[in-house]
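Reviewer 2 asked us to include a model.

Predict the structure of this chain.
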Amino acid sequence: MLSRITLFITCFGILFLFSCQENVPEDLKKVNDQKAAYQANPSKETAAGYVAAVSLYNTMHAGEDGVKELLEDAYMVASKEGQDVVAAGISNEMIKNYPADPKNKERIYSLSNSMKKMGKQDASLALSYFLSKKYPDFAAEKGIVLPDNMPATPDEYIKIKAEKIFEDADVGGLNRSASFRYVDAAEAYVMVYPETEEASRYLFNAAEISKTIGTFKKSLSLYDWIINKYPDNEKAPTALFLKAFILEDNLNNIDAARETYEMFIKKYPEHHFADDAQFSLDNLGKTDEEIQAELERLQKLNN
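Predicted model (structure tokens):
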């Protein structure tokens, strides 16, 4: 009798697992296939394939059940294979996507060390400074040592970085190197202090600075940070509109720009940028001459 029950349970388990695999979404199957390939032949190449699959899955399913665990696993794989830049990117993504996760202290500490190894001293120092200010006991435990004469408060740190971007300007009225340092400091601040009122303002300023110096992809990622994590903030609508504008005007990604303008109009139909969004949507892909000709035609009709 017992053997029959055991056989039944075993068969049921196999059928259940088979059924579950049959119902796995296609993009998750790709993740599982890449993980199997890595487990069968651990290497930098198979690790890269697995991490890429997880990153794509995260893009499509950010915040859903199981995604954080996949990112954590991808981080471990990248770290094991010595892919420090990739591991740092995953850690960065997890800190941003899960701001309340108690593991973030360790992630930020690890990210600071990774930045230092990669020669990004300013980013590393900013992370260590803010981490020490918010969690002094943790910083002491980790043996974090800061240079002398550091600013007294996190806001003062950001203020000093902001003032530097206007000294010896070389691009668009800004100092390019100082601008990068400000952006690094703003991102580090928000990673450690995501709950503050200043967080979204610093992100928006960093996005605007990135746009001014021509680092458009960085600007988009900062606008997305505001849109996704601070959707009720007063800057969120403007961030969405400017994202669409960059996609259209600077990156010439017409399809993505169209989708983003449409999203803006749907979410914020009463916003003061709504008419501008509709105008841009109506004229996507047209040259300045074509737009001018259309405006003149409409003006004649109205006269």
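The chain has three domains: 24-98, 115-215, 234-303. Confidence is low (pLDDT under 50) at residues 1-21. We have added this to the supplementary material.
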